[in-house]
Recover the amino acids of this structure.
């Protein structure tokens, strides 16, 4: 038989110095959102016979305009001493408070009545579900209130309380209902050095603003989530960590608090945007000017009373966060329920609570100096949930309409309503109401006809083929992967294959109109024509690629020109000179003319007029995109060009030409948990091998597409999460095998969607690395560090170019025929061991003394300096265009 376990008192306490906060309406929003997920059952006990639709109430009743009414018949909703799990921090009566009227106040809207809370109905709605509060001690008070509200209707032997993760997670379980009401300690929501539920009072509070996964993995599977955060941000400055608490190479920086708060909420809102569709509501409250709550025994009766304004910087941060969520497509609604909580100055514990530290003589002589005017007595204000019941119905219609579009699958309703988010600060609390749904993908089980041959009968095996997801069916949309996604289990690769292709695809490569192979040639030093631009003249240069800026003094790498063996690259503007003989002087003059005017920026813009040129892939393709922008931006007046902020899709726009040069971060081409352009360094790489839907929705309308993918497949095994898999069961496959599946899904999009007469598609072959100098200089033990000249060894291949991968890519591209052109950059780039940043770039993590003493240990031999090799890739692209 389950037994009750009391909370460890030490886990309750933080003390703080700002005036009244309230954890008032969130819990009832939780309750109401649970109620409305079911169509049957009695919701509440009505005090009035009047029954109105939510629309009627919305039009004639403002639930948040009203007054507090003394009601000692209906309130409190439970007795303090009867709640087994009451916190000593909130038990005001136990610690000497004699005036108990604070327990008897009910909120009464001016124009309507509200129904009464029913604990049994709530538990029915919680059956088989997890309700979790996430945040600080204020949200913990909300959780205690919720537990006390339902505690009385559950027999002692059918309830339990447990702690997990050293007290970070508290779980109250109603055994009969298989339901839990949980609290998870995460006072800053993101990772910090204050995450210990007991020992969290630190002088230097450090926040890892981009890290939320440590906490999120504990709350992701909850059915109903209530968040809060603000109290712990009340400092002028905080230390921000870029890196990991477990590693010594993190970067620490002191930052003004509002900016840190903004960065943390950005991380949290990214998680929110990725995981749910929400409607928001806001709660505001204030304190009483120069006084505090000590000795207050009644509410404020002056209607319209407002306390002191909150920190405007924080308000702007929160408002901006909500605005950003709106712009990212979240259905945001704001319901302001500020005023009602401002009235309840008497509802705080004041001096009537357990003090975790001995009081000083000066404090005892002046009770107001240690009065707790932050938390709330229980029973009391946090129990006043009923005012929100009808407000929830006002939000329901939009969510119901949203869900009905896709929740009916095979006759079963799979949509659900979930309360998802609440964060609070001095004057705002935001609570979200979410409509979630599952969507489905279809497996096609059949044999691949292409495997049938003369010996098919004797060697036939049944293989499961999966048709890639192109979003052509309404129920064909799996849950998107993101950096918070995790595998619930991992098994060996099952052998599923990608079925792709189009019977109309023309076999064979696009035929060249000329006999010259522009990818076979040599590098020629040309200090007159190259570089095609100066590093310092490009305002869009990346610090990762700006080698001269970061200390590289040998600039010879900028002066190499690619010269095909049997021809010259196309000149944008031809030279008018002609010759009838083989006079070397005339030939030299002709070639010099061609080289000096070969790259005509205006001509290139004319080719792009009215078009979208988009690069899609990883950081190497991003380098080629930056190269293209730097090559072309100089002729565009500053007020006629723009660059969008860094995002999955970043856009350079030339207004005069109505043209864009864009980059889409999609390192694996298919959907994955590494698709965040900033936070993509993950221990577990997960991808959907049968879906490019998330990315293709952004690239499908571009006129010229340049794809690449290679580097990210060389970092160990990859987890496969097929679109039809709903339980998080992954399979594991080596990088080459996983890349082949991804290439199949990408190729299916090309085969199905691309008309070569209207859209040009290029695929850039792998960009080689130069990690082992012994491959070009036997007996040496270095890498690209210190290299100043190309490899003068025609036909050289190093281990940085993987032959099996190249053969696989060639096979896939060969099946696509004229729908795709190959930008074959591999061999020519193999020669350029001198072209990498090496140590001459910005590094995002602090280098250790050991690294600094051994430069080759941290040399970047993967990316390319600019100006440099990627400029030639773009010359080749222009040649093919």
């Amino acid at each position: 038989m389950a037994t009750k376990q009391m909370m460890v008192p030490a886990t309750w306490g933080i003390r703080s110095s700002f005036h009244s906060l309230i954890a008032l309406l969130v819990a009832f929003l939780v309750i109401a959102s649970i109620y409305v997920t079911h169509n049957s059952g009695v919701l509440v006990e009505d005090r009035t016979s009047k029954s109105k639709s939510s629309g009627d109430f919305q039009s004639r009743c403002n639930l948040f305009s009203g007054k507090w009414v003394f009601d000692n018949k209906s309130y409190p909703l439970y007795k303090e001493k009867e709640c087994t799990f009451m916190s000593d921090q909130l038990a005001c009566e136990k610690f000497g408070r004699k005036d108990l009227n604070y327990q008897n106040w009910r909120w009464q809207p001016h124009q309507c009545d509200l129904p009464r809370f029913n604990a049994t109905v709530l538990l029915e709605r919680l059956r088989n579900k997890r309700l979790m509060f996430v945040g600080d001690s204020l949200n913990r008070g909300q959780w205690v209130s919720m537990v006390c509200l339902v505690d009385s209707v559950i027999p002692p032997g059918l309830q339990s309380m447990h702690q997990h993760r050293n007290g970070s997670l508290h779980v109250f379980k109603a055994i009969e209902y298989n339901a839990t009401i949980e609290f998870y300690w995460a006072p800053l929501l993101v990772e910090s050095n204050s995450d210990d539920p007991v020992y969290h009072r630190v002088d230097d509070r450090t926040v890892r603003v981009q890290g939320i996964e440590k906490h999120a993995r504990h709350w992701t599977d909850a059915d109903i989530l209530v968040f809060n955060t603000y109290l712990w941000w009340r400092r002028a400055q905080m230390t921000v960590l870029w890196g990991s608490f477990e590693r010594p190479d993190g970067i620490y920086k002191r930052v003004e608090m509002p900016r840190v708060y903004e960065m943390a909420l950005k991380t949290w809102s990214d998680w929110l945007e990725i995981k749910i569709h929400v409607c928001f509501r806001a709660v505001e409250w204030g304190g009483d000017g120069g006084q505090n709550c000590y000795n207050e025994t009644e509410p404020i009766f002056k209607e319209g009373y407002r306390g002191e304004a909150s920190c405007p910087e924080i308000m702007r941060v929160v408002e901006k966060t909500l605005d950003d969520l709106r712009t990212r497509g979240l259905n945001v609604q704001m319901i302001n329920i500020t005023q009602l909580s401002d009235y309840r100055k008497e509802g705080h514990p004041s001096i009537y609570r357990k003090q975790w530290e001995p009081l000083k003589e000066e404090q005892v002589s002046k009770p107001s100096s240690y009065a707790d005017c932050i938390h709330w007595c229980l029973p009391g204000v946090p129990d006043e949930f009923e005012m929100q019941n009808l407000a929830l119905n006002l939000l329901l219609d939009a969510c119901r309409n949203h869900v009905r579009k896709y929740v009916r699958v095979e006759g079963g309703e799979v949509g659900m309503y979930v309360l998802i988010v609440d964060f609070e600060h001095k004057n705002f609390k935001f609570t979200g109401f979410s409509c979630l749904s599952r969507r489905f993908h279809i497996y096609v089980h059949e044999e691949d006809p292409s495997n049938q041959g003369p010996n098919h009968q004797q060697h036939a095996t049944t293989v499961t083929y999966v048709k890639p997801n192109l979003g052509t069916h309404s129920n064909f949309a799996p849950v998107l992967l993101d950096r918070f996604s995790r595998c619930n289990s991992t098994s060996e690769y099952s052998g599923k294959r990608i079925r792709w292709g189009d019977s109309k695809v023309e076999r064979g490569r696009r035929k060249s109109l000329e006999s010259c192979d522009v990818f076979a040639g040599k590098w020629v030093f040309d200090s007159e024509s190259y570089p095609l631009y100066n590093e310092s003249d490009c305002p869009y240069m990346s610090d990762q690629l700006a080698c001269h800026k970061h200390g590289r003094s040998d600039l010879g790498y900028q002066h190499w020109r690619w010269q095909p063996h049997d021809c010259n690259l196309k000149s944008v503007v031809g030279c008018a000179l002609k010759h009838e003989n083989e006079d070397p002087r005339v030939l030299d003059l002709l070639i010099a003319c061609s080289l000096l005017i070969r790259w005509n920026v205006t001509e290139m813009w004319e080719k792009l007029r009215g078009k979208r040129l988009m690069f899609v892939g990883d950081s190497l393709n991003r380098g080629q995109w930056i190269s293209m922008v730097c090559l072309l931006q100089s002729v565009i007046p500053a007020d006629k060009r723009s660059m969008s902020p860094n995002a999955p899709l970043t856009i350079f726009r030339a207004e005069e030409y109505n043209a864009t040069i864009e980059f889409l971060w999609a390192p694996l081409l298919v959907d994955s948990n590494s698709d965040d352009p900033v936070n993509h360094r993950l221990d577990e790489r997960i991808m959907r091998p049968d879906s490019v839907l998330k990315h293709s929705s952004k690239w499908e309308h571009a006129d010229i597409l340049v794809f690449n993918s290679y580097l990210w497949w060389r970092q160990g095994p990859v987890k496969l999460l097929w679109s039809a898999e709903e339980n998080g069961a992954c399979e594991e496959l080596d990088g080459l095998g996983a890349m082949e599946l991804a290439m199949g899904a990408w190729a299916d999009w090309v085969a199905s969607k691309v008309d070569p007469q209207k859209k040009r598609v290029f695929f850039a072959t792998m960009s080689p690395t130069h990690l082992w100098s012994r491959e070009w200089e036997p007996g040496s033990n270095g890498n690209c560090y210190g290299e100043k000249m190309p490899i003068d060894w025609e036909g050289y291949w190093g281990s940085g170019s993987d032959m099996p991968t190249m053969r696989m890519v060639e096979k896939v591209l060969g099946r696509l025929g004229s729908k795709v052109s190959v930008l074959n950059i591999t061999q020519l780039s193999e020669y350029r061991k001198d072209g990498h940043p090496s140590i001459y770039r910005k590094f995002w993590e602090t280098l250790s003394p050991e690294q600094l003493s051994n430069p080759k240990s941290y040399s970047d031999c993967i990316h390319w300096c600019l100006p440099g090799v990627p400029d030639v890739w773009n010359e080749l692209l222009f040649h093919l265009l």
Notes: The longest helix spans residues 257-275. The two ends are 76 Å apart (CA to CA). The chain is about 25% helix and 15% strand.
